[in-house]
């Protein structure tokens, strides 16, 4: 068996296109991982170098994430009112000290021109027509502006305090934003004041930190409005009770959340590579007329097909497993991971991972991600080899599998009710683990209630695919044996 398995690997390895494709995939994955940790502002004009209260420069995305992680880590410990109060006081002290007062005239002139003040004032008071504003902005390559309900334009205003002000605003509240010309001219003139800082500190920050209670309230409101199922409501309350019985812990989740974001970068591209590589698994023997001379016995046929299936499945698993290893390794290199027993809670604008917050732990999500990803790899590999066996044509296999992939996205565009559950059965959707940890309109829930038991939908999906893969394997083995018996 090992000899046959080795032979199958050698056949795949002899195809230069396969080797190039795998190298390209891992290079693409490495670039995606790098981008997550080094993300900067989308616009070069809007990009800024943050500055700490110690006058240290935070010049790029990675430096920001590392600083934010270390800064938030100082609050690690029991998560209670004392912790929240301490963070409020620290944040308020910084915001008061670095309140926006001094306009950065040099930057304003560089971006808007020497007449920036008269231009911004005119735009905010309906002095200019839309065509005038649009032409000027296109000439200066500026996209950081908008229009209010009354048709008045507003633009970003830059202050000398912004590098410090916006750094800590982003760390504490998860977002940072420039001031706008509305705060200098028009009806909202003079809004840059201590009052605005107080609202941010006393209202937004506590609500952001005490999100577990807010999430519970969100579930209850959604439940009353019929947006989510009873299962989602029950699991939310179950976790809330467990969290409230023990002592909540707080720590930085910057590194944890960036890791989850990268795990979500394993997408349909990886599955397409698996499809292309395995589309020739059974078709190659027919193409080269070697299926009749390799092992022309019933027992030999069985061993050969098992070797092919094992080769294909292990290769599919290996491709995605190596990507997972790259992502985990990057987490240790760039931004450290904190306790995995913390509940999923995005902080400091670190990464994007849409799911139920404050309910599931990072450990639960990571384990599920690895499991679902590897099952998805096996599933797409098994379906590809099945079509390859029946079609005996690599191009037909690739085309049919491409249709299969497109179908999953076509259904997703109309995701509602039972279609949401159907969509989650596709391997390409199994890679989007956030689907199995979120609730959606139309009644989709991460859990199914059966005989008063809450069963995770992801477990049902995995079991269904395991059963289907076993059935397809048995069918191929049986038909492969009959093929050789009839021919000899």
Explained architecture:
The chain is elongated and about 85 Å long. The longest helix has 36 residues, at 298-333. The strands form four sheets. A three-stranded antiparallel beta sheet has the order 4-5-6. A two-stranded antiparallel sheet has the order 1-2. A two-stranded antiparallel sheet has the order 3-7. The chain contains 20 helices and nine strands. Helix 12 (254-263) packs antiparallel against helix 15 (298-333) and helix 16 packs parallel to helix 20. With 488 residues, the chain is mainly α.
Which short descriptors sum up this protein?
20 helices, elongated, two-stranded antiparallel sheet, mainly alpha, disordered C terminus, 488 residues, 3-stranded antiparallel sheet, 9 strands
Calculate the mean pLDDT score and round it: 78
Q: Any idea what the shape is?
A: elongated
Widest beta sheet: strand line-up: 4-5-6
Give the termini separation.
22 Å
What is Rg? 28 Å
| pLDDT < 50 runs, ≥5 residues | 42-46, 484-488
Task: Compute the number of helices.
Answer: 20
Order of secondary-structure elements: HHEEHEHHHHEEHEHHHEHHHHHHHHEEH
Structural class determined from secondary elements: mainly alpha
List how many beta strands DSSP finds.
9
Biggest sheet layout: 3 strands, antiparallel
